[in-house]
Amino acid sequence: MLALALSPSAVKPFMGQILREEIFDTFDVRTVDILAQARVNLDTASEAGFSSWAALRPLVYAIIKASPKPKHVKIVLSYPAARVDNIHPNAAALFLNLVYENDSVTFTTATAQKEFALDKTLDGAWDEWVGRFFAEKGLSVTDRE
Hints:
By secondary structure, the protein is an alpha+beta fold. 28% of the residues lie in helices and 33% in strands. It has one domain. The model has no long low-confidence stretch (mean pLDDT 92).
């Protein structure tokens, strides 16, 4: 599991980027939790699967734009289920959790296995992929203390 943080100077540009640009559009969204004047919680599970960030991004942007600066935003993204085998053959689900709070953004990764295994190769493969993804997107992250 990775625990990463954006540099303080990158937080505001990143929040604009995630809400207005296609950076995470290929990910599915498990949940979105926003706390501003009121709490908004979007659970995207349905019989058809999960909504994509591309589909939910305009709604989340509208909610955040219509309220005062949020105190807390948590977005649980997952790598598309149809493609998890590209990362690791034992992957059932691959998660990237984003939390905005106190003018900082942190990320954590998590995995779910198809079959129980004691080795950590799945975690390592997902963490490596996320590191490359951040580098390709120009996101400057550091290990969270």
